[in-house]
Structure formats: structure tokens, C-alpha cells
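Revision sheet: C-alpha cells.
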Amino acid sequence: MTPDGKTFDPETVTDKQLVQYEQAIDRGLTEADAMRLTEHEYNGFQANAIIAAALNPAVGEDVLDALATPKYTAAQMTAIAKIAIRGGDFARFLDPQMDARRMEAAYLVVAHGGSDLPVEHLSRSQLLTINNILLQDLLPYETVRAIAKPAFTPESMEVIAAAMENARHDPYTGEHSLTEAQVARIMNPEYRPEQQIALLTAMRGQTPVADLSDADFAGLFPASLSVEQMSACAYAVNRCGYNAPLLMMTVQACADMNAQQLMAVFDATAAEFSDATMAKVSTILMHTPTLTSQQMRYLLAEARDGTPFPALESMKEHLLAQAEPEKAQVAETGVKSESRDMASGKEALAEQAGLDGTQKINQNKEME
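Predicted:
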């Protein structure tokens, strides 16, 4: 603030400051308020923002003292004045790193009940998302506080809020139901929105995934998994009867496999084989990540049809041997002939293995 008794001396100011001072006087400012423009160098926009703020009787001297500094843009000065006019704690929004729109969004969050939220550290889009959640007043404030953090994207905040609202008001019943405790599991800032949606889908309806302990859930579905891998793991638990230890062991053993390959392995263990056969088939698939998911399912279908294990091993070797020629053919022609290659090798493989299974294999070809 200009010290009391200090008068304007045109000899001590620049030409720009003199022009801005005269404009302020012409627009009705007192000499004391106009002299704020002579204390620093302002551009025209900043000077106009200071004059406009000083002309508003709702803007006090403390507000003018705070905003009248070149470190703020004209837009930030105006935002600070607006917050003060609305009765907000303008001192909370004086960070020059916050642009004007962020300042106003932060003020809205505080004004709508989020006074203890870390608004200074949230982006404008995060602030607007939290503000909308507060305005809807559908969630417990504890949930809002839990997700109003810089680590959560606005999209993740929206997914969590929508899921928690559904769980609280229970618009879904039976096979589509979710509980608040289940929704809380996806409140991991490392999860992407699409991962959160996949996990919510896996838990709907009190599925086996929903019945996992929190520790097992976190261990089976780390944020490092792709959405497809998460869905495959959920498939193993919900459809194939995997428990947490077995799934963790299988995923570790199949670390180099994509989601479709994993599902083929899971289907092998869920098939109605004897324990011995299941172990053998699973071993083939789990320890041969170079097989494509289609090739894995081909071998699985053969196992279901009763093809002996030695023949399956021979078929696996034949498929692996075809891999390099197939890649070359795809590169040359753009056409993938995997299914034809598998079918053409069946009879030869059966003969190589010394099997009396030609008739069955031919019948399978007709069915295919």
C-alpha cells in the first residue's frame, strides 16, 4: 500500500507509468490507488485489471495490495479480485503458477465444500471434475477426499465416482451388483480408467473375483498388466476355477505370453481332462510361448478329441517348425495360412507318431 502522505511526483516515474496513472485518475481512482500503478512496471492489460479491481467497492485494500504485482497476469489479477468479491479466501489462490482458470476452478471446489482438499496441487480438469462430484452430492465426502489427489486422472475420478454412486444407491441387483468395498479396490491411482472398468466388470454380481481378499486382488491385478491381461486373469478366476496361488504361479510361468495365449492356457486347465492329461497339455502350452494362441487352441482341441500325448508333442514341433516359413509367407503375400498349415500336417504327424488315428483325424477335418 502507498504510505500515507505520499504524493505523486511525475519526475520519478516512466512515461508509461505516467500515462497509466493519468488514466486511473480519469476513471475515478483516488490518488492513493492510482499510485499503485507507479510502483511497478505493468503492461496495459495488467494496469486495466488493477484499475477495474480498485473501482469495485467489494475489493478491499488487502486484495489490491495482493494482486497489484507484475508477477500476476491481468487474467490472474481479475480472478483474484473475483474470488475476493465472492467472499472467498483469496489468499489461498495467490500462487502465480496457477493460471487464472485454475484459480477460479480451485475457488469453486472450496466454495462447494472442498475447503480441506489440496486444490493448489490439482489441474483445472481435475478441479472441475471434483467440483461436479461435489455439486452432485452423491458420494461420501471421504470418497471425494480419497480421489481428489494429483495422481488420479479426471477420467479415473469419474469412473470411481460413477461406480461408487451405483454401489451406494444400488440401481443394479443380482448379477450386476457391486459393493462399496469392491469399488474401493479400483481406487488405485496407478490404474488407468480402462483397467478400472475391466476390473469392475470382473467383480459385478458377486463373482469369484469379487470374493478375493483385498491382498489377493491387488496381487493378481497389478497396474502393470494390460487391460487384456487383466481380463484374461479375471476369466481364469471367474470361469476356469483358478484360485489366487494357482493363478499367480501360472501367470509367472507364462510371463512372456499375451492375453490370448494366457486364455488358451487357462482353458486347458479348465477342460475336462484327467489330472495327468491336463498336466501334460498345460505343460506343452505353458512352456512354449512361441506358439500362437490359435496354435495353442488347436492343440487343446486335439487333446479334447483324445489325441495321445506323443502325437501332441509331434504336432507342437511341426507347428514350431512352420513358424518361420509362415512368417516369410505373410511378409511376401500378406496372407496368413496358419489353419491350413495345421490341417495339412495332421495326417503326416499321425503317421510319424505311428498312430492308428487316421480315420479320426480325417473325420475331424470334415467337421472343420
